[in-house]
Design a protein that fits this description.
CATH architecture of the largest domain: 2-Layer Sandwich
CATH class of the largest domain: Alpha Beta
Strand content: 5-15%
Oligomer: single chain
CATH topology of the largest domain: Alpha-Beta Plaits
Largest sheet: 4 strands, antiparallel
Number of helices: 6
Number of domains: 2
Helix content: 40-55%
Shape: elongated
């Protein structure tokens, strides 16, 4: 199991040095993500993905849940209120729930793809001020080791905390 660590770095040269140190500490590059002001990160810094920058996944889950609930409710009402010889049966409730989940997930993910990630809200001011956010996913047993590594070599880096879980698509 991995934990996501957050650090706010003062500038891009510091971000490059921290990247090198994390790679030397045997953290794979696919587990290191940087987020900066729009179009300011150089190509050698692995940029955060679309799923990490936006609220897409949260919106998708919420929309699917609400849509499925609404679909099941509408399907149940339709099944109960129609004449028994015309109704297709209780399977209609399941189909309505599935259709509701798909429509809810689709509609809400459209909105979530344009909204910044709410879990990064605390860092938004620092990013807009030109600082760089480092997100690194490390095994649970290495959380303190990596935190101390960055803190000891870069006292100017601000500790941002630990996310409670790894994202679904790291």
């Amino acid at each position: 199991m991995r934990r996501r660590l957050f650090f706010v770095l003062p500038d891009i040269p510091t971000a490059r040095k921290v990247l090198d140190e994390l790679l030397l500490a045997r953290i794979e590059e696919r587990h290191i993500h940087f987020l900066g002001k729009r179009d300011t990160l150089p190509p050698e810094l692995p940029e955060a993905s679309f799923l990490q920058k936006t609220d897409f996944m949260h919106a998708l889950r919420t929309g699917a849940t609400v849509g499925a609930s609404a679909g099941v409710a509408v399907g149940a009402v339709a099944w109960l209120l129609t004449l028994q010889h015309l109704a297709p049966g209780p399977g209609m409730v399941l189909v309505a729930g599935l259709v509701g989940a798909l429509l809810g997930a689709w509609a809400s993910s459209l909105v979530g793809s344009s909204v910044p990630n709410t879990s990064l809200r605390d860092f938004q001011g620092a990013i807009e001020a030109g600082k760089v956010l480092l997100m690194v996913d490390v095994p649970f047993r290495r959380v303190e080791e990596i935190r101390e590594l960055v803190a000891s070599h870069h006292p100017e880096a601000q500790w941002g905390g630990v996310a409670p879980q790894v994202p679904a698509f790291p």
